[in-house]
Amino acid sequence: MSIAAKKLDSYWMPFTANRDFKNKPRVISGASGHYYTTEDGSKLYDTLSGLWTTGAGHCHPKIVEAVQKQVETLDYCVTFQMTNNKAIELAERVTNLAPEGLNHCFFTNSGSESVDTALKIALGYHRAKGEGNRTRLIGRESGYHGVNFGGMSVGGMVNNRKTFSANLIPGVDHMRHTLNIEKNAFTRGLPHHGIELADDLEQLCSLHGGNNIAAVIVEPVAGSIGVYPPPIGYLKRLREICDQHGILLIFDEVIAAFGRLGAPFAAQRLEVIPDIITTAKGLSNGVIPIGAVLVRDTIYEAFMQGPESMVELFHGYTYSGHPVAAAAGIAALDVYEEEGTFEQALSIEQHFEDLLHSFKDQKNVIDVRNFGLMGAIEIAPRDGAPGARGGEMHKKCFWEANVVVRNVMDVLCFSPFFNSKPDEMEKSFLKIRHVLDSIE
Length: 440
Fold this sequence. Notes:
Elements (H helix, E strand, L loop, with lengths): L2 H4 L11 H6 L4 E5 L2 E4 L4 E4 L2 H4 L8 H13 L11 H13 L6 E5 L2 H18 L7 E5 L8 H6 L3 H4 L10 E4 L5 H4 L14 H10 L4 E6 L15 H12 L2 E5 L13 H5 L5 E4 L11 E5 L1 H7 L19 H16 L2 H17 L7 E7 L2 E6 L8 H14 L1 E2 L1 E3 L2 E4 L7 H17 L2
Parallel strand pairs: 3-13, 5-6, 5-7, 7-8, 8-9
Antiparallel strand pairs: 1-2, 2-3, 4-10, 9-10, 11-12, 12-15, 14-15
Helix pairs in contact: 4-14, 5-14, 6-13, 10-11, 15-17, 16-17
């Protein structure tokens, strides 16, 4: 056992079966490009590009250089009543990429913080307009919006919620999720069945009164639950219902933004423009924690009332707009532009899709789903042991195939690098196929 593994006892790991992990640790000590390095020098191909974060590759030299230079120049600067030049520049860069009308950017440190910030902005917006009755929030079953209390409340992943169920925020309802394996199994791209599920929102408007609902939040493509692409027309129908009732539509693009769907934002690829967009992960290529919430001009302007000397929104974080994180974000956006990263992502979509769907007739595979560079292979659970096959796949891929695969119970999730090489993708999926064949 390595030195790092021997010291594990003090480390309480997130979203991990800690006791099982510490019996046989999987420890990474380095990364470059598309590969991780373990302490014994083994190279592991990363099929999730970090955690949906690192589309341009690990340790990109331009981003590394920008971070190193910024630490030497300005390591920290409070952004309450003053700010730093990097935060200003990054806000302008991000809003220039955003869909038309979303011209204002509030910085956070993570996707979870971005979601809670967006929910607070939505509630504050309606109050500023004199519609304080609009307090109800609508999420979706199986949705993931981070692990802070607001995000958990509008989220719909049972294991994330159940321990804290008595303390989640009140006034929240959920629409049904959009996964329908019976009708949409092995669909390439957006599924054809399910647009009618958007009318769940109309039913909730009838139940509570649409004039009492502040906002609806959805992931354009649900990622963390196991990749649920939206049915054709579903998001447009949500937009129509929100417009009809004066409800804000929030897209949680923590995973999808910055190239994951071959465009700066999923809203642009899917041609549905929300009122608020939450981001994180790809904003800095995963190098430094940073998130951002983008809002329509009308939302920002609603807050800009009263005496100019007053704080308009009593919200923020110690590290909002951190100069080193902002420098990483600026460098990441430079890389995306100079290397044509979003175009690269589009160019490998078809190959990625073909590789995924080559598993259609594989033993135990019950569904394959994909859109953009997000994909999932769902395998049948063992009787009485849901998640066991998926967990075994993750471990055997790591130890025996030198491939890092993310499993969500019995769903294998894939999120390739935007600049993935076709031969490396093919080799990694061949290894995954061999491991899957070996599991009963």
